[in-house]
Amino acid sequence: MNRNCSVTISLLNKEGPIYLLEERIDDKFVKYTLNNSLSPVLHLTGRDLKITLFLCFSQHVQYLDTQENLFLSNFQGGRPLLTDPQVITTSKYSTKFTAGNISSILESFKQLHKCNHYCQWFSLTSYDDSTDVREMVPRSVESDMDLDTQLTST
Ligand SMILES: [Zn+2]
User: Fold this and answer.
1) Source organism's superkingdom (predicted)?
2) Taking a C-beta distance cutoff of 8 angstroms, is the pair 74, 124 a contact?
């Protein structure tokens, strides 16, 4: 069974509707991050929180790899599919990628991003030394991930 499907039918020089078809998500739909925040959605726990922390880490990687010009936000979906992310760019490109491109979030990345254990594990630049990465992971999740071992082995 082919579960990957995305079709866009665009007739830009003709009048009429434009259709966008996306893959059906059979799993529970989860909102991991918003496009106006760099923090995980507050109600998440367990595996969903682990996924969210990894996605926040991926934002940090994207921010660094694009020389602080871009990252993705608004992560959501159902396992194993993420859908409809938002590109966040500098104000130079604020009219691109729809109104959800909130440039002020990118401009405040160093103040708003809270590094977690993934950032530390990969030795990414930390912007806030006062944040204890253990605060970002509830105790039950921490034990699953063997966080103490990871943090002390570096
Ligand atoms: Zn980080």
Assistant:
1) Eukaryota
2) no
Q: What is the pLDDT of residue 77?
A: 92
Domain residue limits, the chain: 26-152
- What does DSSP say about strands 70-73 and 19-22: parallel, antiparallel, or unpaired? unpaired
How does residue 135 score in pLDDT terms, banded at 50, 70 and 90?
Answer: very low
Among 44, 103, 123, CA closest to 76: 44
Residue 142 contacts by C-beta under 8 Å, 6 or more apart in sequence?
A: 134, 148
Residue 119 Cα to ligand 1 middle (Å): 5
Of 7-16, 17-26, 99-108, the range with the highest mean pLDDT is: 99-108
Contact between residue 100 and residue 115 where contact means Cβ atoms under 8 Å apart: no
Cα–ligand 1 centroid distance for 114 (angstroms): 6
What's the 144 CA to ligand 1 centre distance in angstroms? 21
- Place 95 in a pLDDT band, splitting at 50, 70 and 90: confident
The structure's pTM equals: 0.73
